[in-house]
Amino acid sequence: MIKPIAIIAGEPNSISSEIIFKSWSLRKLYTHKPFMVIGSVKLLNLQKKKLNFKIKIKEINNSFSLKNLKNNELPVYNVDYEQKKPFQKISKKSNKYILKSFNIGLNLIKNKKVCGLINCPVSKETLFTNKNQGVTEFLSKKIGIKGNEVMLIYNKKLSVSPITTHIPVKQISSKINKKILIKKVKTINNFYKDNFNKKPKISVLGLNPHNFSRLNKAEEEKIISPAIKNIKKMKIKVAGPISPDTAFVFNTKDKPDVIVGMYHDQVLTPFKTLFKYDAINITLGLPFIRISPDHGVAKNIVGHNIASPKSLIESIKFFNLIK
Length: 323
What we know:
By secondary structure, the protein is an alpha/beta fold. It is built from ten helices and twelve strands. The strands form two sheets. Strands 3-4-2-1-5-12-11-6 form an eight-stranded mixed sheet, with helices on both faces.
């Protein structure tokens, strides 16, 4: 049985509605499963008018069926939210609405009504009280698997994964250890095997420039190299530690499927330079597929109708690639 994708509208005063409208308007140009939106019908109608989209919105509820998702109206599972103007300043006022939208999405997953979740961008700074938390960490904690989550920024040519995510740089060294590194590489390997029937080539980066530190027992020596040695015994195709400054310069023979870095910007900065918006953010380790576009709320262009829907469209298309 085909199940639809649930798209959580995310931060209401961001580019989320714009990329949703564009993805819906372009839906006949790409192959996809049926999809629905979880958000405020009233607000989306206000934003639709402001952005001058001529699409129709259809309100649905928990009793929706595939039949009423397959017409020319954008299906929206309504979440009550009072806002009289289409776009306002991002603030904590929308937190209750966003969290309720996530709860509805998780309930739809629990009741096997949808095949997975896509969440549009949220403002981590205003939504989460823990400033080091993102949606990846929030969802893993919410469903009781904290510590098992893995962030994978996916592109079919190359993907990247940071061992630590939204933490200050000064904390990175204390947050990496052999156990975590082994667990996360295993999760990535299993994801590729389960969904693509493929044993991926995985390159693991060092932490220090050129994999070298004058300190006794640097992280490469005491953590990363021993972890890689153990991972190889599991018959996983892993190499490293690779020097971070040359990791993204490779020939065809040695090209990895995934580069695992020790911290967020170590892999995200070169990756986004290479692929820009042609990428999606997948949370591995959950009992369902969760994806988000690989960009933020873009508050500088909200309401201008110039945002690219490419990453959201790639998120929607991804559900056709996996088993």
